[in-house]
């Protein structure tokens, strides 16, 4: 890639009057194009809500029955159940009314848009209806598969949208670039993408990359030597042994340019009316399989990592040599189990009621973090729990440096340490001294990831106190309140953790302060059915 080419940051482009794309643009566009009008017809025909119309649509497709027949069967199932008959079961036919009621409950915690079809007066403002439906799905995006758009049948909720368990959806997501935009993540979350690719590389290079591997994606693997394709022969990825799969993933990543160069390529200024540059056009010598592996590295992670660059976001009293990432959401199934255990296990314990959780450090070799970020911390049956240290210096001793580093990595991780949140019941741990040994993995959630660059590996060999920075005076930033006996430390200095809700509340307050009520002209009012004088 020629770095001398002119490029421009996306945010600095002049406003040409069009909407900016976001990571879910392609997914939402396919939803509107393929399903919206059909869902609208179901709503009008059967007098049901959006959630019920969606459920009816997917049931109709799966069972290969017309919606009218399904509605009749569902009504008969409800009647038979009320009469004590078991001719029909709710496992076969879900009560559409219940689905709509569940969505009404969501309005208590989400600002769902007003439903323009509630009036059911025979008049449909198609533009307003489509717009409000789009807002609704954007608000609830983490509850639906981004490829098939079906509601996810899970007992947890993620912050980051992802795909369902269907093999076809996974194939379309990774191989056909359907779903959230990889290009968007590269431009807006560059450091996160770099870290995920770097950790996948280390895991593959050190034979630690384990299931799930990117099977079923029709990957054709070229013969690569020293980062270069040497001939035209191709091998089917799915036919390789696990060891060969790992080597292929490492070799494919070796052919990729730095993530920062990808960002510059994607943000190059293009003439008005022409499409933006695409990754596959960056270098014709890079195989399609390499781009698919890049997408897999990012999209297979249902957690969302955000690099903390602003001082008010960073954990205080940790040296600047450590790159800090926050888990905006942990692995979603882990989060649900953690919250359930927190509410259940702390009942009846006064100290746990006052301090529900504690924070502690966990160090592990770099090769393990590709898996940990996706699945959380766990332990083998021969162990007696996951080990944590109250002082992070102890954990750095277990964060063995990786001997392999992706050449084009910017983060260049040589050591990784997690700062985890744990349910504060140390008397129930396998051990609470000198280390916390937690046998219940549902009691553990990684909240921060501290990453040391290769060039900074010597830092952890210095005496205690080296590199630690005093807590800066951060006006109005609230910090977590800890049990005085369980405060997290680094070099025997107390670590201060900002309240995670602080930044969100600050942004919401800023939005409210700068919001200006739009003035609707007559044409706007006609479009949105706004009464005169409002």
TrEMBL record:
<dbReference type="Pfam" id="PF00644">
    <property type="entry name" value="PARP"/>
</dbReference>
<keyword id="KW-0328">Glycosyltransferase</keyword>
<keyword id="KW-0808">Transferase</keyword>
<feature type="domain" description="PARP catalytic">
    <location>
        <begin position="351"/>
        <end position="425"/>
    </location>
</feature>
<dbReference type="GO" id="GO:0003950">
    <property type="term" value="F:NAD+ poly-ADP-ribosyltransferase activity"/>
</dbReference>
<dbReference type="GO" id="GO:0016779">
    <property type="term" value="F:nucleotidyltransferase activity"/>
</dbReference>
<keyword id="KW-0520">NAD</keyword>
<dbReference type="InterPro" id="IPR012317">
    <property type="entry name" value="Poly(ADP-ribose)pol_cat_dom"/>
</dbReference>
<protein>
    <recommendedName>
        <fullName>PARP catalytic domain-containing protein</fullName>
    </recommendedName>
</protein>
<keyword id="KW-0548">Nucleotidyltransferase</keyword>
<dbReference type="InterPro" id="IPR051838">
    <property type="entry name" value="ARTD_PARP"/>
</dbReference>
